[in-house]
Amino acid sequence: MTGHNKGGILARTECCVVGVDFGTLSARAVVVRIADGTELGSAAFDYPHAVMDTVLASSGAPLPPRWALQDATDYTAALRETVPRAVAAAKINPAEVIGIATDFTACTVLPVTADGTPLSAVPELVDRPHAYVKLWRHHAAQPQADRINTIAAERGERWLPRYGGLISSEWEFAKGLQVLEEDLEIYERMDHWVEAADWIVWQLTGCYVRNACTAGYKGILQNGEYPSRDFLGALNPAFAGFAEQKVAHEIGQLGFAAGTLTTEAASWTGLPEGIAVAVGNVDAHVTAPAAKAVGAGQMVAIMGTSTCHVMSADRLAEIPGMCGVVDGGIVPGLYGYEAGQSGVGDIFAWYVANQVPERYFTLAAQAGTSIHQYLTDLSDVKPVGSHGLLALDWHSGNRSVLVNHELSGLILGSTLATPAEDGYRALLEATAYGTRTIVEAFVESGVPVIEFIAAGGLIKNEALMQIYSDVLNMPVSVLTSEQGPALGSAIHAAVAAGAYPDIRTAAEAMGRVERAAYTPRPAATAVYNRLYAEYLILHDYFGRHGNDVMRRLKDVQHEVRAPQVVLPGVGHTTVAPDRGMPA
C-alpha cells in the first residue's frame, strides 16, 4: 500500500495544486488554490482520435457493433497541452504547485507490456483492435458478461451480491475475457490489463499503482480478494490466471500519493519535478468531495454523456443492480456505492443529430442559442405531460438497475402531430425516471438518500434540473464548479501533498455546492408520479419479465448487418462533448 505526506496542514496555503480530468472526448486541467478551492486557471484538449466506434483510425477497418476504442497517446498529449496552459492561465509561478492528481472515465482499460507500453503502440500490433484502449462504453463484451453472471450465480460466488447480482460488460473481467476469446495473441502479449486511471499516473510517476476505487468497483476486488482461479477457469480454462497474472498489483488508497513527478513528466507539464502525484481515481467518485458530499446519504449524479451516481453510507447493503459497493470507495470510513445510467447526454445528442429537422437549427441560430437549449425552451413552456409521450432511456443499454446493455431505447405515444421538441422533452424526462429507479432501489434496500446533488455539464440546463427535482420529489443541489471532477482531483492532490490531513477536511475547505438550488413543484410532481408509474410498467415489461424483443432485434441486426459505410468527417463518434449537453 502506498503512503503519503503526513506532515499535516501546510503553512503555505497560498500554494496550488493541479487536477486533470480525463473525460470521454477531452481532458481538462484546472489550477486550484489550496486555501479555499478557488479555481485560478483551466485548459481543455480534445482527443485527436476521439472515440473509435465505427472504424479503427490506423487502418480504416470497420469495427463491429458496440465497440468503443481510444488511443492512449491522446492521454499523454492531453497532459502536455492542458497543464502548461492551465498554469499560464492561472498566472502563477509553476513552483507554487505542490501536487497533481488525475481522474478518468471507468471502466476504461488497456493492455500494456511490463514497462507500461500500450500494445497499440507496438508497431506490428497497430492494426489490431484489441490492442487499443477499451473505453467505458465498449459494450461488445456482453456475451462474456452474461457468462460471468450465469456461472457466478450458479456457483453462489460471494462477491456477486456486492455488485447488485450482475457484472457489467463495461468492466475489467468481461472485457479481458473478450480479448482472450477474440485475439489470443494480444491477450498473451499483455503483461498488465490496466485501468487508464492508473496508466496515466504510471506515466507521471514511473510507478504502477492500482487505485482502490477502480479495483473495487470495476475489478471485482472485495475484502482483498479477486475472483478465484477456479471460477475464472470455469469461464474459460485459459482465463484461470487472469486475476493474478494480468490484473493483481499494489493497491493505492484514495488521497494517498502514488509517487512523485518524474523528470520526463515534469518536462511535459512544466511542473516541478518531485511534487506529489495522487493515486488515480474515477471521474464520478472524485467529484463527491468537490460537491462536499463526503457524508452518508449524499448522492452525487455526475451528468454528462452518461450519468454516474455515487454515494457514501454508514451501512453495507446489497442493492439490486448497483454497480458496486466498496469499503472506502469514495472516502475512508464509509461504504462507497455506485450506480449509473449508460446514456444521458449521448441520448440527447443522438436525438438532435438524427431526429430534428433542419428548420429547428435555423431558428435556434436566429435566436442566438444552441439547438439543445432551443428545444428545451420550446418544450418547457408546455404543461407537464401535455406531449403524451413516454420514453425509455436505454439507447446505450441499462447500467442500473437492470444491468443489461442489450436493451435499447423507446419512445411511446408518437403521432403525426408530435413535434421534435416533444420527443426531446420525453427523453429528458426519461433520464430523470431512470435516476428515480436508482434512488428508489437504494431507499428500498435500507440505504437512505438524504440529498441529491447534480454535477457535470448538464446542470447548465435549468429546465432539466427542475425536471429532476419534480420527478424525484426532492430538492436538487448543484456543484457550482464547471470543472467538478478536476476540482475533485485537485482536492485529492492537496491531501496527497500533505496540505490537509484527510479528504473530508480538504473537501470542506475546497469544495463548492449550492444547496437545494431546485425544489419540486407539487403540481408537476403529481403528474410525473402518474407518468413514472407508466414508465415502470414499460421498464419491467422490457427489462424484467422475459420479453427480450430488444435483444432479438439486435440479434437480427447483427446477423444481416449491412456493409459499413462511413461518411466523410464522421469516422469517429458523434456523441456530445463531455458534460456539455445541453448547454
From TrEMBL:
<dbReference type="GO" id="GO:0019569">
    <property type="term" value="P:L-arabinose catabolic process to D-xylulose 5-phosphate"/>
</dbReference>
<protein>
    <recommendedName>
        <fullName>Ribulokinase</fullName>
        <ecNumber>2.7.1.16</ecNumber>
    </recommendedName>
</protein>
<comment type="pathway">
    <text>Carbohydrate degradation; L-arabinose degradation via L-ribulose; D-xylulose 5-phosphate from L-arabinose (bacterial route): step 2/3.</text>
</comment>
<dbReference type="InterPro" id="IPR018485">
    <property type="entry name" value="FGGY_C"/>
</dbReference>
<dbReference type="Pfam" id="PF02782">
    <property type="entry name" value="FGGY_C"/>
</dbReference>
<dbReference type="GO" id="GO:0005737">
    <property type="term" value="C:cytoplasm"/>
</dbReference>
<dbReference type="InterPro" id="IPR000577">
    <property type="entry name" value="Carb_kinase_FGGY"/>
</dbReference>
<keyword id="KW-0067">ATP-binding</keyword>
<feature type="domain" description="Carbohydrate kinase FGGY C-terminal">
    <location>
        <begin position="300"/>
        <end position="497"/>
    </location>
</feature>
<dbReference type="GO" id="GO:0005524">
    <property type="term" value="F:ATP binding"/>
</dbReference>
<keyword id="KW-0054">Arabinose catabolism</keyword>
<keyword id="KW-0119">Carbohydrate metabolism</keyword>
<keyword id="KW-0418">Kinase</keyword>
<keyword id="KW-0547">Nucleotide-binding</keyword>
<dbReference type="GO" id="GO:0019150">
    <property type="term" value="F:D-ribulokinase activity"/>
</dbReference>
<keyword id="KW-0808">Transferase</keyword>
<dbReference type="InterPro" id="IPR043129">
    <property type="entry name" value="ATPase_NBD"/>
</dbReference>
<comment type="similarity">
    <text>Belongs to the ribulokinase family.</text>
</comment>
<dbReference type="InterPro" id="IPR005929">
    <property type="entry name" value="Ribulokinase"/>
</dbReference>
<dbReference type="GO" id="GO:0008741">
    <property type="term" value="F:ribulokinase activity"/>
</dbReference>
